[in-house]
Specification:
InterPro entries: ARM-like, ARM-type_fold, Armadillo, Plakophilin/d_Catenin. The protein is mostly helical and 190 residues long. Helices cover 63% and strands 0% of the residues. The protein is built from eleven helices and no strands. It is globular, with a radius of gyration of 16 Å.
């Protein structure tokens, strides 16, 4: 499964005409559903490959809607502080966070789904984490800055007792000045 997801990941990267065609073809063949099901796979490397493939597939707006509707609820439990995050590596965590970024950027429906699946609190906790690497914390901050475009994130944090100074800091693009860009878990995304 890891190899198949890796092949999809490579074939759907960037915006060349064959990648656009592959994104459409995989959607028509119900491949999105099959990939989403494998987010719960026991092997970390499979989850990472599937997550990155889903990120590349979500470049297509129709795929983005479908993956957002059915896949976000499978991604959130796999990130740190989620219910099923045991055994997930740093690279896979970054891949999952990057997939969430791609799904939520400029998409209110996916951001609302993210909120409805209780994704905001684990991400907010991750931004404050001392036990995760700077790359993971940075990715969590980037995701917070994306979802901050919508009021849904701030209202959830306020309901859970975060004061406005805390969540303003969360949404301020990180509060850290790291000198690296996310590598999307070691994969290329031209």
């Amino acid at each position: 499964m890891e190899a198949a997801a890796g092949a999809i990941q490579n074939l759907t990267a960037c915006n060349w005409k064959w990648a656009v065609y592959q994104r459409h073809l995989i959607r028509k063949a119900n491949g999105l559903t099959l990939l989403i099901e494998h987010l719960n796979h026991a092997h970390d490397t499979v989850v990472r490959s599937v997550s990155t493939a889903l990120r590349n597939l979500s470049i297509d707006e129709t795929n983005k809607e479908i993956i957002g509707q059915y896949g976000i609820e499978g991604i959130i439990p796999r990130i740190p502080y989620g219910q099923n995050s045991l055994g997930i590596s740093e690279s896979t965590t970054i891949s999952l966070l990057c997939t969430l970024m791609e799904l939520c950027i400029d998409n209110y429906n996916n951001t609302s789904t993210f909120r409805d699946c209780n994704g905001i609190t684990p991400i907010a906790r991750l931004t404050q984490s001392k036990e995760h690497t700077p790359k993971v914390v940075y990715a969590a901050h980037k995701l917070c800055s994306i979802i901050s475009e919508y009021k849904v994130a701030k209202s959830v944090l306020k309901q859970e007792g975060w004061d406005s100074r805390e969540y303003l800091r969360l949404f301020s693009e990180g509060g850290h000045n790291y000198n690296f860009e996310l590598s999307h878990a070691g994969t290329h995304h031209p």
